[in-house]
């Protein structure tokens, strides 16, 4: 069943109104077809705090996994969406959930050089020593490289101290 909406907020309202398995196409973004299973991840990856709040208020599972075994916190960490990260942390999301290649949200924040996001995750209790499948701790991932990566790592060390060996 295909229905149309005029905005992503309208799309989410349609989804939470009981059409959980129906696919919906949003007219303002004709390529987006979502269902309730992935709307949490979509909201996190697009930094749509309004959609996240609506979904949470309707009882959405903020620890639901997608096909890559990622939860919405992985997406928010990858994009550095501090507002969405705070929203998820306030609602008790899992901090150290690994995706299918072993990366936690902290790995992805560091990989993308989102230092403020990494610090927020560490302060909330993220495991700085957890290894991914490549045997890399979050602060050891190569990421974007260059000066941006070095600055992010330095900011994390200045804000949180050095990682325990």
From TrEMBL:
Ranges where the record places region Disordered: 135-165
UniProt signal peptide: none
InterPro entries attached to this UniProt entry: Ankyrin_rpt, Ankyrin_rpt-contain_sf
Superkingdom per UniProt: Eukaryota
Keywords: ANK repeat, Repeat
Ranges in a coiled coil: none
Stretches forming ANK repeats: 41-67, 68-100, 101-133
This protein's name: Ankyrin repeat-containing domain protein
């Amino acid at each position: 069943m295909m229905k149309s909406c005029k905005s992503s907020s309208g799309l989410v309202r349609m989804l939470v109104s009981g059409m959980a398995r129906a696919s919906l196409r949003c007219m303002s973004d004709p390529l987006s077809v979502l269902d309730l299973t992935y709307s949490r991840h979509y909201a996190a990856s697009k930094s749509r705090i309004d959609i996240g709040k609506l979904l949470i208020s309707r009882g959405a599972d903020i620890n639901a996994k997608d096909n890559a075994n990622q939860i919405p916190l992985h997406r928010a960490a990858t994009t550095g969406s501090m507002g969405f990260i705070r929203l998820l942390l306030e609602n008790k999301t899992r901090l150290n959930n690994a995706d299918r290649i072993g990366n936690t949200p902290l790995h992805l924040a560091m990989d993308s050089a989102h230092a403020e996001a990494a610090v927020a995750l560490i302060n909330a209790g993220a495991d700085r020593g957890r290894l991914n499948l490549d045997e890399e701790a979050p602060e050891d991932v190569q990421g974007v490289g260059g000066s941006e990566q070095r600055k992010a790592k330095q900011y994390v060390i200045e804000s949180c101290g050095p990682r325990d060996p």
